[in-house]
Amino acid sequence: MSKAARIGVPEVKLGAIPGAGGVQKLGRHIGRSRAIEWVLLGKHYTAADAAQAGLIYEVTEPDALLPAALALAEKLKALSPLAIAQGKSAVYTAEDVDLATARRTGLEALALLVGSADWVEGMGAFMEKRAPRFE
Questions:
Q1: Residues sharing a CB contact under 8 Å with residue 43, sequence separation 6 or more, in sequence order
Q2: d(Cα 75, Cα 92) in Å, to the nearest integer?
Q3: Alpha carbon 1 to chain centroid distance?
Q4: Is the torsion defined by CA of 6, 90, 22, 43 positive or negative?
Q5: CA distance 57 to 1
Q6: H helical segments located in 1-116
Q7: pLDDT digits (tens, 9 = 90+) for 96-117
Q8: DSSP code, position 2
Q9: Please, are residues 94 and 102 in contact by the beta-carbon 8 Å criterion?
Q10: Which of 3, 60, 79, 111 has the largest CB neighbor count within 10 A?
Q11: Burial bucket for residue 11 (CB in 10 Å: 0-12, 13-18, 19+)
């Protein structure tokens, strides 16, 4: 997130509250007391505030935002697309379910990867001490 950007949930200023799960997700990510602050005050917060709350990956200067995003994309591009998809799915699912279900979902995601082309390439590259080449 650029240091120049601001985020928030200003719906209270319009006589509303965040929809589409915004209230529920915000509380799970930053805690109840902070979520109440954000929702009830409707303020806009800085990138530093968002980083301190754990909502963003990185804070950059405005003109460094695109290069930072592209650098992150390059890192992700070198990794297993199947593992990335399953990892994201498992993390997002874990936010909305109990711990036992989250564990089961994680194991199911891993089971979907075992034997896949990405799994074979990743394990082969590890054994051969080389960088994997995922497609």
A1: 8, 10
A2: 21
A3: 13
A4: negative
A5: 8
A6: 22-30, 32-41, 47-52, 65-77, 81-95, 99-113
A7: 899 999 999 999 999 999 999 9
A8: B
A9: yes
A10: 60
A11: middle
